[in-house]
Predict the structure.
Amino acid sequence: MAPEVNEIKTAHHLYAVEMIDITKRFPGVLANDRVTLRVKAGEIHAIVGENGAGKSTLMNQLYGLYHPDSGEIRIFGEQKRFHGPRDAIRAGIGMVHQHFMLVDTLTVAENVVLGSEPVKGLNFDLNRAREEVRKLSEAYGLYVDIDAKIEDIPVGMQQRVEIIKTLYRGANIIILDEPTAVLTPQEVEELFEIMRNLKKSGKTILFISHKLNEVMEISDRITVMRGGRVTAELITKETNEREIARAMVGRDVVLKLDKPPHKAKDVVLEVRNLWVKDNRHLNAVRGVSFQVRAGEVVGIAGVAGNGQTELVEAITGLRKVENGEIIFLGKNVAGAHPRQLREMGMSHIAEDRLKYALIKPFPAYYNAILGRHYKTPFASGAFLNHREIKRFTAELMEEFDVRPRIIEHLGGNFSGGNQQKLVVGREIKAHPKFMVVAQPTRGLDVGAIEFIHRQILRMREQDVAILLISMELEEIFSLSDRILVMYEGQIMGEVRPEETTVEEVGLMMAGKRLEEIRGGKK
Amino acid sequence: MKKVLALLLMTLVLTAGFAFKAIMVTDTGGLGDKSFNDGTWAGIQRAAKELGVEAKVIMSNEQSDYIPNLTKAAEEVLKEKDGGIVFAVGFMMQDALEKVARQYPTVYFAGIDISFDKELPNVINFLFKEQESAFLVGYIAAAMTRTGKVGFVGGIPIPPVERFRYGYEAGIKAYMDLKGKKVTVIRGYTNEFSDPKKGKDLANSQFSQGVDIIFAAAGACGNGVIEAAKERTEKLAGKGYENIKKYALSGKPVYYAIGVDVDQDYMAPGVVLTSAMKGIDTAGYYGVMWAYKGQFKGGLKVLGLKENGVRMSEMKYTKEIIDKLAPGAIKELEYLKSLIIEGKVIVPDSEEALKAFTVKGVKLPR
Amino acid sequence: MRKVLESILVPVLAVLIALLISAFVIVAIGKNPLQAYAVLVRGAFGSKQAIIDTLIKTTPLILTGLAVGFGFRAGVFNIGAEGQMAMGALIAASIASNFGNIPPVVAIPLTLVIGMGAGAGWAAIAGFLKAKTGAHEVVTTIMLNWITTFVASFMVTGPLATGSGTPKSPEIAASAQLPILMKVGAMELSAGIIISLLAAVFMYVFLNKTTVGYEVKAVGFNPYAAEYGGISVSKNVVLAMAISGALAGLAGVTELMGVHHRFLGELSGGKGFDGISIALIGQNNPIGIIFAALLIGALRTGSNEMQFLGVSKYIVIIVQGIVIFLVAADRIVRTIYLRKKVKS
C-alpha cells in the first residue's frame, strides 16, 4: 500500500485523472473517438451516456483492462501506461464492477484481502485481515459484517465490500460502474452517503450512471457521452436533467409521460388468497388477493425480496401455487403450465431477462418467437418456417427499434436495452389479453425507458390488462392506475397514484398498513 | 507417395535376414500382459533368433481390429518369398482367425488357446490342459491356506479360464478328500483381460472376505491381484523378499497370489506362491520352427502335463516356506502329478466332471 | 463465415500440433516420424482394404459421436453411450436371431428400430431420473453402463451363449444383416456407413429445422427461459436423452448387423466413450462429428500398420489425447491464433 505517496501528489495537481484524446477501436466499432476526460482531484465526477455510448470502454482503459489505440492517460499529472489492472491498482485506481467479483463462500474479510498485494506469507493472517477491514469500514462509514459469508449478505453490503476492497488496495481514485443498478432506494441513499464520506476524505470518484436524478443528486461535474464521443461537459449545479438527457440521446426526451385517462373494463385476472413458497420453502406470498381489469395498469410496489418475484412466477406458471386461486379469463389456472397460459393470452416480460426471457446463444430470430415457435406461421407441422420467422423478426426489430438490426445477432450480444426491446416486442406482438411486466426498465437508459413506457401505455389503451411490478417508485407512479404495495408477502394497501404520496407508499413499503397510516393521520 | 512406399518396403525387406516372417497379432490385452501374449511372443522371438528370421507383432486395440490385423499380417507373409506364419493369440480371436485363414489358404496360421469346430489344413491350433497345472496349484493353495478360504479371480469366463478354475477347485477338493481339511473357494470375474486395476479391486474384496490365497487366471488383470497380495503382505512383513520370507517362516499368516500362464513367481518374490504355467512359449517356438522347416501340419494340438505343455513353476522363492508350513505337500504333488501323467487321475475340464471328481481311491505314499 | 472458418481451423490446428508433439515422442524412441506418419496414412487410406477398414471403424464412431454431440446440444452429458450401444446391440441380437422367415425389407428396418428403441429406452431412464429427481445424468448413465456390462456378460456366457470360442450370441438371421457394399478378403464394408451418414443428416435437420429441435436446444441453452417460453423442461430432458440413446443404440445395432452379425461381450469396446472425444473434436456439429470420427477411425487403422515400423499403437492414443486436450481447451489454440492475428 502506498497511499501516502499519492496523497502528496494530490496536493500538487488539479486533476486526478486526465484521459486525453483517447481512441479505441474494436472490430467494426469505434468505441471511443478522441475522448477527453478530466476529473478533478476530490470530486465526484459522473459519466453518463446510453448503453453502448463508450463509458465502460473508457473506464476499462483507465483500469488497465484495455490499451487505448491512441491518446494518453495521466494520473495526478503523471503519464501512465497500464499493462493490466495490476498497474492501475498500483497507481491508486480502484474499480467496482457492475457484477461483483466476490467469492460467495468466503467471508467479507477474506474477500477483501483476497489476492491483494503485498502477498503475505504462507500462513494467512486472518486476524490482521479482519482488523484492517474493520479499520477501513469505520473510517469511511462503510458498515459491513466482517465475518459474514458473501452469500449471506444483501447486495448493498456486497457492494460496500467491493468498495472496501479498493480502499484496502490503496485506491485514491474509485470507479463505480453503474453502482445503483442493483440497489433498492434505501440502499442507494446509503451508497450516496458513503460516496460523500469518501469525497470528504479526499478520494476522487468516477460515477458511471444513466439515472439522471441520481447524477443530479450526487455529482459535482458530469461528462456526457454518446456514440463513443463526449457530447457535453457540465457542472451539475448549473444544469438540469433535460439538458443532460438531450446530450445523451441527441434529441429532446420526454422524461415524464402523459397518461391519458382510460376506462378499465372487465376483470381479466383475479388472484384469490394466494400462497406461494420461495426456493428455501418459506412462505413468500402469504394470502394475496387482487384483480386486474382490461385496460388498466396495476402496479405492485415494494422493496425487492418481499414476494413480488414469487408472485409473478406463480401467476405465470413458473412456480408452484401452495394455496389459493388464480382466475384468468374466468378459469382457475393455478398450476397451469406456461404454455397453457400463453395459449390463453398471457404475456410475460420477466424481471430477469437473462435468466428467463432470453436465450443468449440463440439468434434474435429464435428469441423473437420463443413461446410461439410451434404455432403458425412460425411452424408448419413439425418444421420451423424460417422465412416467416426471419421476416417477423425483421419487422419486430424495426417496430421496436432493436439495434443493431441484424436478425442473426445472438441474444447475448445485444446491449441490455436492446435485449429488453426485443423481449418487449416479442411479448407485445403475441397480442396478449393480459401482460405481466416485471422490472421492465431495470438497467436501461433514459431513451429505452421512455420507449418501453410508451409501449406499456399503448397496450393499456388497447385494453390489455397489465400487472406492473417495479422497484422504481417513479415508474410505478407514472404508469399505474392503481398501486398495490407488497411487504413480506402481503399487500399493505391499495392506492391510486393521484390520491397518494411517495411518502405514504414508502411507509407501506416499510411494513405499515394503509389503514394504520391513514387511521393514524386522523 | 509410391516412391516413399517402395523405399519403406525395401527397408523392411532389407532388415529381414531371410525372406521368412513370423507375425504375431495380440488380442486386446496386448504385449506387456506378462501372461500369454508375452509368453507366445517370447517363444516366437526365441525361434526367430535361432533361425535368424524376422518376427513382428501387431497389437489390437479392439475386437474389430482382429480381422484387419490378421489380414494385414497374412498380406505381409504373402509378400515374403519363403512365406512365414501368423499367430493369433487368445481365445477371443477364434472367429477372426477362422475367417481370415479361409481367405489365405496358402498362409500358415497358428492359434493359441483356439480350436475350430472343423480344423483347417493351414492352421495349427494349440490348446492346453490348463486344468492339470491348475490342479497342482489348487492342491498347494489348499495346503497353505490358514483361513480355510481361497480365492479365484478369472477374466472373462471363457473355456480356458474355466478350465483353470475346474482344475484349481479339483486340486482343492483333492486336498480336502485326502487330508480332511475344509477349504472354501470364493470366485470372481473381472470380465476382461486388460485392466490390472479391476483385478486388484476384486482381489482386495476377496481378501477382506477372509481369503488369504488367490489364484488369478485373468491375463493382465492378474497383475493387479499379485499387487494386492504384495501390498497386504508387505504391510505385515515389510518390503523385500528377505523380510517376507523371514516373516512367513516364522509362521505368521501372510497373503499369497498364484500366477498364471507364465512363471510369474518373480513378479513378487515370496508373495507369488507358485504359477500355473501354460507352455505357450513352447507353442510359439514350435509354430515358427515347424513353419520354417516345412514340418507344418494343420490341426489341433492339445498339450497337457504329459506333453510338458502345462506345468507348475519351480517355486524358487516359496519352496522353503511351503516345506516348513505344509510339510510333505510338494512330495505329495509329485506323486499326484505322476498319476495324472499316467492317466490314473483325470482332472475335470467341465462343471459336471468337477462335481463328480474325487480322489477317494488314491492313497498317498508314506 | 469467419466463425465457420475458425471452427474448422481450431480442430485442424489441434491435430497438427498433436502430430508435431507426437513426432518428438517418435524421435525419442529412435524412429523416423515422417516415415511413421507416411505408414500411418498408408495404413489408413493406402489400399482398398485399408480404406474399408477405416470406414468400418469410423461407422460406429460417427454414431456414438452424434449421440454424445446431440446430448451436448440438448444440455445433457450422456456419458452412457457405451451402455446404450451395447444394450441396443444386445436386445436386437436376441430378437433378430429369430428373423429367418422375415424378408430383409422388413427385417432390416425392424432390427434397426429395435436397437434404437433399446438404446433410447435405456438412456431415457437417466433422462427420467434427471427430470423427476434431479439425479445427474453423468452419475446415472455411468451406473447404467455398469449394469449393461454385467447383463451383457451374463447373457453371452449364459442364456444367449452359443458355440465355442468367444462368448457370443447366435448369429442374427441373414435377412437382418446389412447389405455389403464392398468386400476385400475377410473384411466387409456394410451399409452401416450410409446409415451413420443419414443419422448425421437427421441430427442436422432435427436440430435446425424442427420445432422439437428448437425446444430441445432451448432447454439445453437455458432451461429457465425454455420453461418461461412454455417449453416443458422435464419432457425435453427425457426426449433429449432418448434421442441421444437412440443414436448410441443405432451404433450398436449397425455394428451388430454390419460387422459382427452377433453380439459379443466386447462389441461396444469403449466406442461409446470415444463418442465423447469425437463430439468434442467435432464441436457437436454433425459434419464436424463425421470428420472427427473419420480422423479417429483413420488414426486407429493406420496405427496398426505403424506397428510394423516398431512404433507403438500408443502413439495414436497420444495424438488423440492431445487433440482432445487442445480442442477441449480450445481457448489455448484460439488465444495463440488471435494473438497472431493481433500482431499481424
Chains A and B do not touch (no CB pair under 8 Å). The domain at 3-249 of chain A is CATH 3.40.50.300 (Rossmann fold). Confidence is low (pLDDT under 50) at residues 1-11 of chain A. The first helix of chain A runs from residue 3 to 12.
